């Protein structure tokens, strides 16, 4: 029974990691759109926490591409298109983990 709890914890941690990755990719997308250097994925959580503009930029990036809506892949810039593809793949992985988590919980109830 302990392995089930470890598996559940691992799936939740993986889901949180995927949400961080999704948000970091969206921050890179916003920066490229604004004509700035995209930076790295770590820039999403490594910043000056006292800077209100940085908080606002990350909040807007977090809400950029909702998971329940289709993500149109119509971009002229190849860098933006590549980031959108990565965000779409991340959405698919999050949906897969949610499905596996629900299947595990149904299995435990039976």
Give a short overview.
This protein is mostly helical.
How would you sum up this structure, described in words?
It contains three helices and no strands. The mean pLDDT is 90. By secondary structure, the chain is mostly helical. The protein has one domain (2-109). Helix 1 packs across helix 2 and helix 1 runs antiparallel to helix 3 (78-109).
- The amount of helix comes to 55-70%
Question: How many domains?
Answer: 1
Quote the distance from N terminus to C terminus.
14 Å
Global mean pLDDT: 90
Sheet with the most strands? none
Strand content: under 5%
Present the secondary structure layout.
Elements: H1 2-33, H2 52-62, H3 78-109
Helix pairs in contact: 1-2, 1-3
Summary keywords:
mainly alpha, 68% helix, 0% strand, 110 residues, single chain
């Amino acid at each position: 029974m302990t392995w089930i709890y470890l598996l559940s914890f691992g799936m939740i941690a993986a889901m949180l990691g995927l949400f961080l990755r999704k948000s970091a990719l969206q921050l890179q997308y916003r920066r490229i759109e604004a004509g700035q250097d995209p930076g790295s994925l770590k820039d999403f959580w490594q910043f000056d926490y006292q800077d209100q503009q940085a908080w606002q930029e990350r909040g807007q990036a977090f809400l950029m591409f909702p998971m329940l809506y289709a993500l149109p892949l119509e971009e002229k810039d190849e860098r933006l298109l590549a980031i959108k593809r990565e965000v779409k793949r991340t959405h698919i992985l999050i949906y897969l983990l949610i499905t596996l988590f629900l299947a595990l919980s149904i299995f435990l109830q039976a």
